[in-house]
């Protein structure tokens, strides 16, 4: 996959700046709408749902609007993309971008695809992790693979067009096992089936696991990142565990095609300020989210390159046959 490093992360000055005290913070920027809808294809409790709901609690300090989250489930994200593509391009509606909206477009024939909407900005890169129930039999990723070799096993991931599903498929191929991979519409549904023992493992994200991690209901087995997570230094990478698989998720925003330049400019100013906000930084750092701001023009290039490299991978592996 293309590296987002090519498009420049936030400068040290932007992310490392000392946040101003609340009483000296500049007034939020004027915005053309009082209410802004943030759409996600995730179910409540899923990764994008958590991302939007946490971000929306702090955005009002930088953009003078109220932010509401709308869950539009179905079709592996296709319904959410159609909701966005048919909305007015006036800055009142945005969608939480992840690799899912690219994969859905490549792996099916939805009414609207990622090409019918406009990338706005990227906000974070996110870790994918392998987890299991804390009282289950698996202590390491090697245990899971050994079980899959003996009894096939059942693994869980989000919808078929998700990066989680692709990560699970790549792990399956790298390990040389034939585990059944069960898809779910969102991380919340997946979590239930891991906790009740229906699934051996799930592939998900730290934000959607947070409550169960704190309650010691789930155990992390490995992370798909190239390096260990600073917040989880004892958890090995999948590659360290013996399987040459590395994936990482992007999280950003897209709008309908034709967004006004002034709206784009407001978001390009607001997101670096938001990421440098000390209160919000404590929250996203605890969720193992990495600030990864990419402005609009570069983000459009990044999305296009990501789509091209993803399509090439799917064709090479026979997922796309024509």
Mean pLDDT: 89
Order of strands across the main sheet: 2-1-3-10-4-11
Radius of gyration equals 19 Å
CATH superfamily caption of the largest domain = Bordetella uptake gene, domain 1
Q: How do the SSEs run, as a string of H and E? A: HEHEHEHEEHEHEHEHEEHHEH
**What structural category arises from helix and sheet content?**
alpha/beta
Number of helices, counting only DSSP H or I runs of 4 residues or more: 11
Termini, distance in Å? 21 Å
Q: Which runs of at least 5 residues are low in confidence (pLDDT < 50)?
A: 1-23
Strand content: 15-25%
* Percent in helix: 25-40%
Largest β-sheet summary: 6 strands, mixed
Number of DSSP E strands: 11
CATH class of the largest domain: Alpha Beta
| CATH-assigned fold name of the largest domain | D-Maltodextrin-Binding Protein, domain 2
User: Can you name the CATH architecture of the largest domain?
Assistant: 3-Layer(aba) Sandwich
Please state the oligomeric state of the protein chains shown: single chain
Task: Present the secondary structure layout.
Elements: H1 12-16, E1 35-40, H2 47-59, E2 66-71, H3 78-85, E3 93-97, H4 99-107, E4 117-126, E5 129-133, H5 141-151, E6 154-157, H6 163-175, E7 180-183, H7 187-195, E8 201-204, H8 206-214, E9 218-223, E10 249-256, H9 261-275, H10 278-286, E11 290-294, H11 296-316
Parallel strand pairs: 1-2, 1-3, 6-7, 6-8
Antiparallel strand pairs: 3-10, 4-10, 4-11, 5-8, 5-9
Helix pairs in contact: 4-11
């Amino acid at each position: 996959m293309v590296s987002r490093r090519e498009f420049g992360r936030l400068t040290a000055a932007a992310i490392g700046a000392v946040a101003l005290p609340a009483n000296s913070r500049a007034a939020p920027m004027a915005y053309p709408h009082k209410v802004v809808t943030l759409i996600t294809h995730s179910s409540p409790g899923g990764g994008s749902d958590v991302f939007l709901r946490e971000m929306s609690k702090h955005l009002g300090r930088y953009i003078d609007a109220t932010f509401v989250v709308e869950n539009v489930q179905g079709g592996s994200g296709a319904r959410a993309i159609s909701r966005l593509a048919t909305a007015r391009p006036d800055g009142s509606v945005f969608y939480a971008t992840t690799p899912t909206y690219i994969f859905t477009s490549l792996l099916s024939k939805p009414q609207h695809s990622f090409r019918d909407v406009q990338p706005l900005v990227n906000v974070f890169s996110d870790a994918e992790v392998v987890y299991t129930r804390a009282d289950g039999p698996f202590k390491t990723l090697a245990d899971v693979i050994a079980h899959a070799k003996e009894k096939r096993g059942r693994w869980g991931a989000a919808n078929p067009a998700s990066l989680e599903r692709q990560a699970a498929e790549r792990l399956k191929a790298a390990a040389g096992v034939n585990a059944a991979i069960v898809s779910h519409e969102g991380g919340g549904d997946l979590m239930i089936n891991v906790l009740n023992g229906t699934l051996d493992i799930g592939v998900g994200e730290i934000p959607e696991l947070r409550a169960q991690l704190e309650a010691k209901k789930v155990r992390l087995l490995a992370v798909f990142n190239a390096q260990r997570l600073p917040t989880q230094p004892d958890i090995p990478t999948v590659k360290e565990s013996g399987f040459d698989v590395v994936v990482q998720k992007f999280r950003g925003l897209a709008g309908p095609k034709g967004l006004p330049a002034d709206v784009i400019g407001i978001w390009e100013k607001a997101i670096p300020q938001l990421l440098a906000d000390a209160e919000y930084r404590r929250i996203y750092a605890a969720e193992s989210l990495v600030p990864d701001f990419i402005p609009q023009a570069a983000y459009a290039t990044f999305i296009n390159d990501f789509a091209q490299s993803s399509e090439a991978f799917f064709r090479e592996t026979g997922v796309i046959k024509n």
